[in-house]
Structures are given as C-alpha cells and as structure tokens.
Amino acid sequence: MAEYIYHSKQWxxxxxxxxxxxxxxxxxxxxxxKILGQMSTVGFSVKDEAHLNALTLDVTKSSEIEGEFLNYDxxxxxxxxxxxxxxxxxxQPDRDVEAVVEMMLDATGNYKMPLDEERLFGxxxxxxxxxRSGMYKIEVGRYRSREMQVVSGAMGKEKVHYQAPSPDRVKxxxxxxxxxxxxxxxxxxxxxxAIAHFWFIIIHPFDDGNGRIARAISDLLLSRSDNTSQRFxxxxxxxxxxxxxxxxxxxxxxxxxxxxxxxxxxxxxCLYRALQSTETTFEKVRYKSIFWEEHAETxxxxxxxxxxxxxxxxxxxxxxxxxxxxxxxxxxxxALRDINDLIDKEILQKEAQGGRSTNYELIQxxxxxx
Length: 370
Hints:
By secondary structure, the chain is mainly alpha-helical. It folds into 2 domains: 5-287, Fic-like fold (Orthogonal Bundle); 301-362, Winged helix-like DNA-binding domain superfamily/Winged helix DNA-binding domain (Arc Repressor Mutant, subunit A), CATH 1.10.10.10. The protein is 59% helix and 5% strand. The chain is built from 14 helices and 6 strands. The protein has a two-stranded antiparallel ribbon. A two-stranded antiparallel sheet has the order 3-4. A hairpin with a 2-residue loop joins strand 1 (132-133) and strand 2. The N and C termini lie far apart (62 Å). 33% of the residues are buried.
C-alpha cells in the first residue's frame, strides 16, 4: 500500500505548481476584492444581513458535511443574538447550537488572535458539550490518545479511507502546525487557509470534529485575508455542494509525496465558486433592505414580519394560509386575517394561476431597481 503524505521525507514541507496556483489565486483575490468593494458601498442593514446569512450557512453547512443537521432558524437566531442584530425569528436555540455558533464567532470575530492549543480545545469542547459524539463517549477538549481511522461501510465490511498519524505523534505534529500557523507571514492568507485546512485534516488530532475545526481554521484565515470579522461568503456551503469532490481530492492528496497542487487547485476553485454565489445572494439581501425601507412605517404584527422575512429569504414551495398557520403557530382564521391585511396593504397578492388551493406571493417593491 502507498504510504501517506506524513511518512514522506518532505513532510511537512509542501510544494505546488506555482504558476498554476498563482493564476487561480489571482482570480480569487480579484473576485474577493470586488465583493468587499460592493459591500463597502451599502448601508449597515445590508451588511449585517449579508453577514448573518453567511455565518448561518457556514455553521449549518459545515455540520451538514459531517451528516449532522442543525436547525437553520435556531442557528440564525443564536448568531443574531450574539452579534446584537435584530432578527424577526421566534426560535429559541438549543445548547448544542449555541456552542457551535460560539466556536464559529470566535474563529471569525477574533481572527487576529493567535491560534493555540487552548483555543482549539475550547472549540472542540464547544462541538461536543455532552462529551459524546452521537451515542459514543469521546475524548473532548484534548488531543486523541487512540489510533484514528476514517472508515465507511457496514460493521465487519468497513473500508479504511485514511489512517491518521499515531497518537504519540499528535502533540509534536500540532506544535509544528501551530508554530507555522502563528509565525509564517510570507504566504498569501488565502493560500495559507488552503494549506492549513489540508495539514490539520492530515494530522486529525481529535477523536471527532476534525473536519468542522479544519473549516473553522480556514474561515479564520479567510477573515484575516478580508481584514474584517464580517463574513459575506460561505466556503462550507460550497464544500457541501461539492462534497463528493472534496473527499475525493483529500483522499487522493493524502498519498502525495509533498506536492499538494491538486488540493490547492480544487480549494481555490471551490472558494471562487463560493464567491460567485455570493454575488447572487447579495442582490437578494439588497432587495430585502429596499423592501423594509419601503415598509418602515407600515404597521405589521410579529407573525407578518416573520413570514415576510421568510419570503424575502427565499421561501421554499408555495405560500398558503395553512402553511402560514403552521409556521406562525396560529389558527387558520388568524392566518387568513394576516394575509388579507397584507393584500390590502399591497404587500402580498394571490398568484395568477389558480389550483386547488390559493397561493400568495410578494408584490415587487416600486423602487427595486433604484
């Protein structure tokens, strides 16, 4: 069997095709600058909304990559509360959601702070507040003391995808990684985020949660590269979309002799696509701001504000009175009263195509294109 990259004599001196990587890095940096430039021209409300959207995606999608599904509204509400942002949600976050949010806010909000053992242990403890991963008790807030394999398949038919360095090497490997992380000032920070992600995954220093912490490390360095704690794009969301390719390139590069060009090219392309999708969501956020400016003086109740925000964020499926009643935990009569009031105020309208049930949609703002 081929040896893993950490067995190489070059480890951990990585190499790559400079020409290929620099060309891609230049494209990423250009688009990154363009988005930050767009954000600098808009008001605080649009920036806050974009920041809230990106962080919510980062937290939920990073967990989803590992097969753990967090409640989107709880995550959004928790982030809004911790950032002091107004959010029209009525969801009380669970303790595990609060802990994961705290980890991400520390990574992105305190991006200028050094990364050390204690900080990583704090993140790990936040991911596993009960000391368990599912049904299994794990070592929390410290490096693993056991062998670590990444496996898949049914019991007795497991396929080993990766064998991490032995536990007696972990402390030494992490000391070297953290020294590089805190002391290397020569690498471009976007490129550094790609290398740090891969390096940490290879060491696999914890019993569980290594992928999520690797992505938090990437986000910390991307915040440094943007020189702001405000996040306007989500790398984790794009990784989830491309999850199969993500695991494939990691698995392939773990057998490299030190040349990680393939990983860097994939990572930079993935980040570029994350930035591209942000350009699209920026328009949605901008329109939401215009909508609320136009209706600043309109009298609305909490249920109406909740549902209007859901419609502006991209409500899935058709809006009916029964869905309204279910989401707002109100009666059918109350839902119809809320909807008819918004129709009278020229905010909602019945959809043109009929059908067995009546569907409703937003009326476009008058100053949408201003």
